[in-house]
Design goal:
Blueprint (H helix, E strand, L loop, with lengths): L6 H13 L18 H10 L15 H9 L3 E7 L4 E6 L1 H8 L3 H6 L9 E4 L4 E5 L2 E5 L3 E5 L7 H10 L4 H16 L8 H4 L1 H4 L4 H37 L3 H32 L2 H6 L2 H24 L10 H8 L1 H4 L6 H70 L13 H26 L6
Antiparallel strand pairs: 1-2, 1-6, 3-4, 4-5, 5-6
């Protein structure tokens, strides 16, 4: 008992230490994988000519690698800040949840199961965007894009690099400085619209990202519709001229592609329409506004605490923090229900998607018209076949009568007509003439009854 641990415990511990011998840190408490590696940033920043974009890759060796293999949930993200600086990060779900403060179910929405759905969700500090191939998490200060190296997502990344303004952060910094200045003036608060004047000249950061995402998605859907129209009309015209198995197969695949594309456009359109119908959801998407209110509330709390210590004279009444908060943020709170900017933005792309949907519906109507025309052609051919069959049936009836007469006289029945010389020719001619007259009589009756076309 005093010689140490039992044999089996010592063997397992040696095996565990041997397996973890390549790690630099103890395996009992490995640190979480870093969200950012300064060494890799500097190395790539020196090799890249673009000073605004830097490539950051999560650690692939050491303790982070072991944890990534154990969790198996690390995915590639690209981060854009207000200044347009970008970096690639590789992190798991827990790091993303801690960074943007969203529930775990929102990450499942961005997963592969709901990849074909369209959602724009408002959270306390973030906005979850899942539009077609664009899956991103937008905050008031940055945007995280999932799987940025996909072929469909690259145009969205390029648009973010080109269109993100470089002065938004300066305006936000000016607003924060004004809020701190107001807090230090001993109750001499200025109207907040003067402080936020720099933000009113352009859309907030989150709406700029949302606008770029909607623009890329709408452009992608429009290009698909244009390709569909370019391929659809020649195929449909060819089917109208020649109904064949090959042309019918082309139209079938075309119609299935049209149905899928219409469903995709309808999903994005319905999501935008849902937001336009609910002002509260649109107000929750104003992340910059809520961020400014939080900054002012923190500055107000700090100034209130300092005033409670310095202003200790009994003849000076001290304002409560709630009243001061209402005085400071009153102008912003009055604008909480103002969703005009977002409403105009969503209405523009809603109209564009509605136009795209109308184009698809026009192609579908053309397909339906072509199918009706083809069905009319087939019905006409079927009627012609029925008429031909009726004519052949009448002719068969007349020939059957003539055959009946010939069969009756071919049964060796005693008859005086056999004794007449040369009667065969007259008899055959008269019977054939009678059968032809019978055929014309039945055919005229069918035309009189309009069973045959003229």
């Amino acid at each position: 008992m005093g010689k140490g641990l039992p044999f089996f415990f010592r063997k397992n511990s040696r095996r565990r230490l041997k397996k973890a011998g390549g790690l630099q840190s103890p395996p009992s408490a490995p640190p979480p994988p870093p969200l950012r590696s300064p060494e890799l940033i500097d190395a790539n920043h020196n090799n890249n000519n673009n000073n605004n974009n830097s490539l950051v890759v999560g650690a692939s060796t050491g303790p982070g690698k072991g944890k990534k293999k154990a969790g198996g949930a690390a995915r590639l993200w690209m981060r854009f800040d207000r200044l347009g600086n970008s970096e690639l990060v590789e992190c798991d779900k827990s790091a993303i949840i801690k960074r943007v403060s969203i529930p775990a179910r929102d990450l499942r929405i961005l997963g592969p199961v709901f990849s074909h759905s369209s959602n724009i969700l408002a959270r306390e500090k973030a906005m979850v965007v899942n539009l077609e191939f664009i899956r991103a998490i937008v905050t008031a200060e940055e945007v995280l894009i999932l799987d940025p190296l996909c072929q469909e997502v690259l145009p969205f990344v390029d648009q973010l690099r080109q269109q993100l303004p470089h002065k938004t952060a300066v305006n936000i910094h000016r607003v924060s400085q004004n809020a701190d200045t107001h807090a230090s003036t001993g109750g001499q608060w200025l109207p907040l619209p003067e402080a936020a004047e720099g933000l009113q000249c352009e859309l907030p950061f989150e709406f700029q990202v949302l606008e770029i995402a909607l623009e890329v998605v709408c452009t992608y859907l429009d290009s698909n519709v244009a390709d569909l129209e370019r391929d659809a009309y020649p195929v449909l015209d060819e089917l109208a001229m020649n109904v064949s198995t090959k042309n019918l197969e082309h139209v079938r695949s075309l119609k299935s592609n049209l149905t899928r594309l219409l469903a995709r456009v309808q999903k994005v359109r319905d999501e935008i329409e849902h937001l336009l119908d609910d002002n509260e959801d649109m107000a929750d998407l104003y992340l910059t506004r809520k961020w400014i209110q939080n900054q002012q509330s923190e500055a107000l709390v700090g100034s209130g605490a300092s005033n409670s210590i310095t202003l200790a004279a009994p003849h000076l009444p001290r304002l409560g923090s709630n009243r001061s908060a209402s005085m400071v943020t009153g102008s912003v709170l009055d604008d909480d229900d103002d969703v005009e900017d977002l409403e105009m933005l969503l209405e523009a792309y809603f109209m564009q998607l509605d136009g795209t949907r109308n184009k698809i519906l026009s192609v579908r109507e053309y397909i339906d018209d072509t199918e009706d025309y083809v069905n009319i052609q087939l019905d006409n051919q079927r009627n012609e076949l029925i008429q031909l069959q009726l004519i052949l049936t009448i002719a068969s009836f007349a020939i059957a009568v003539d055959t009946l007469i010939a069969g009756m006289f071919g049964m060796n029945i005693p008859c005086q007509l056999y004794q007449i010389h040369g009667i065969f020719g007259y008899f055959v001619g008269s019977s054939s003439t009678g059968c032809l007259f019978l055929f014309l009589l039945v055919l005229g009756y069918a035309r009189w009854k309009k069973l045959l076309g003229s």
